[in-house]
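ok new one. same drill as before - structure tokens go in, u give me an amino acid for every spot. 490 of them this time. try not to just spam alanines like last time pls lmao
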């Protein structure tokens, strides 16, 4: 009986489509609007399976439907079954086509991709509205058959990602909740942007772990498990990149990573794939001394980085010409100021200490020197210079003021450190700029650098490219002897 009904349905459908469209040619070819051209056959119907958790699927395909059994006439075969997928919440009208095999299975990767396309990567059960089609071929003709609409419910594969993360350990000054340091994040859904960053200053041998927001909220800082403390598999691992884990290699709590060399670092974690990278970056160090009146509030003399660890300052060292150094986060704390083992040391080079440090003094007062420190080796050197050219003004000009040659924004020269200039300025939008002397183009400095990528550099006077500056408020510093600049965002 089923065979008779099936044959009759096919014949009737074929006659109907011929009468409607004499130009109809090949049903085996994909149709642009299959919903309008498909036929239905009694008893040929798709049914959805139970909700699917893709994290529990071990193979590369998963069953999403079953098709009712229909007795086909001799020589008739079912070919090319597929589903047209849309989000059940109606958020998109762009359908995704996924092929279905004879057992009602589809590729896991394609299902994962469809869910991510419509709903994102968050591991939440999602409903997909799917229309099922098959091609049934008999007697040299292919008929497009509508097997009905089903809802496929599936949860995509994704690891646990907390809403926020915190660095803790020797690198932050302690292993308790009072010493955690927050990672920065864009504020987007963490499954769409799983990248977090933090910058820290570390001594050689300092260790670290990562605390998720849930541990902070619960008050259980060291809660472990898939949603708990994050670290490395091998305790004491000094690698600057690798895989993050929530369990150590011996099955215990995650191990602590270790920083091998002292310096400033930026850690970037990607919690979708549980990886990390640590890169040395330039810290911010301020000079305090005769050049700024030994003030514990005057930050007009930051050193100019030339690498992650090497920083310089060039000027005519007037007055006593003595100084100490503060790292930005410790500004004002004399107990950790960097200096010389002996007070008022006038040596051309020496060792830096930051415990009981004495002042470092220029070898010859009132002369021009470049003072260089290497925070990696904890050393300093003085390099004497010839008398440089002087300028009456140094300013910035750029897209932010329409490159108006009559509207330079002039910087202020540091009173105790000639040839060093400062300016606090807010850029309302991304812009380009150059530094220039005497409100004219005779001498100008530029560099093809984006301040968002590197906040320091050395400008060139040879018709160099413009600096690119993201919108924001900055304290800007410039040295007209060396062409060095530094942007410190507020």
């Amino acid at each position: 009986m089923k065979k008779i009904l099936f044959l009759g349905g096919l014949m009737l459908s074929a006659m109907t489509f011929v009468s409607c469209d004499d130009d109809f040619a090949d049903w085996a070819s994909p149709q642009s609007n299959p919903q309008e051209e498909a036929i239905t056959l009694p008893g040929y119907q798709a049914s959805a399976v139970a909700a699917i958790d893709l994290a529990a699927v071990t193979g590369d395909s998963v069953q999403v439907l079953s098709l009712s059994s229909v007795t086909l006439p001799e020589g008739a075969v079912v070919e090319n079954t597929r589903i047209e997928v849309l989000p059940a919440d109606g958020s998109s009208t762009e359908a995704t086509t996924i092929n279905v095999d004879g057992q009602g299975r589809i590729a896991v990767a394609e299902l994962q991709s469809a869910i991510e396309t419509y709903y994102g990567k968050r591991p939440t059960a999602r409903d997909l509205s799917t229309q099922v089609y098959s091609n049934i071929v008999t007697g040299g003709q292919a008929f497009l058959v509508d097997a009905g609409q089903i809802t496929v419910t599936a949860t995509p594969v994704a690891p646990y990602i907390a809403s926020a993360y915190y660095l803790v350990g020797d690198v932050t000054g302690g292993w308790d909740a009072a010493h955690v340091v927050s990672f920065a994040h864009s504020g987007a859904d963490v499954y769409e942007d799983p990248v977090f960053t933090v910058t820290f200053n570390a001594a050689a041998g300092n260790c670290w772990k990562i605390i998720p927001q849930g541990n902070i909220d619960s008050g259980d800082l060291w809660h472990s498990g898939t949603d708990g403390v994050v670290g490395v598999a091998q305790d004491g691992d000094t690698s600057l990149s690798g895989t993050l884990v929530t369990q150590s290699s011996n099955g215990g709590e995650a191990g602590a990573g270790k920083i091998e060399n002292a310096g400033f670092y930026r850690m970037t974690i990607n919690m979708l794939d549980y990886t990390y990278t640590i890169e040395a970056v330039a810290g911010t160090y301020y000079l305090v001394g005769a050049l700024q009146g030994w003030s514990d509030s005057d930050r007009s003399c930051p050193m100019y980085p030339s690498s992650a660890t090497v920083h310089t300052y060039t000027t005519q060292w007037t007055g006593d010409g003595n100084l100490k150094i503060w790292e930005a986060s410790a500004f004002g704390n004399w107990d950790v100021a960097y200096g010389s083992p002996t007070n008022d040391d006038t040596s051309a080079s020496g060792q830096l200490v930051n415990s009981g440090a004495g002042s470092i003094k220029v070898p010859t007062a009132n002369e021009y020197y470049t003072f260089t420190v290497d925070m990696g080796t904890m050393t300093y050197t003085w390099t004497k210079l010839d008398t440089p050219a002087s300028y009456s003004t140094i300013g910035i000009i750029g897209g932010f003021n329409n490159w108006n040659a009559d509207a330079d924004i002039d910087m202020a020269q540091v009173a105790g450190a000639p040839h060093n200039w400062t300016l606090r300025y807010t850029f309302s939008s991304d812009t380009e700029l150059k530094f220039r002397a005497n409100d004219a183009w005779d001498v100008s400095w530029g560099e093809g650098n984006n301040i968002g990528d590197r906040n320091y550099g050395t400008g060139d006077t040879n018709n160099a490219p413009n600096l690119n500056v993201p919108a924001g408020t900055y304290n800007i510093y410039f040295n007209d002897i060396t062409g060095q600049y530094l942007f410190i965002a507020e």
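The chain is about 10% helix and 35% strand. and btw Confidence is low (pLDDT under 50) at residues 1-7, 11-36.
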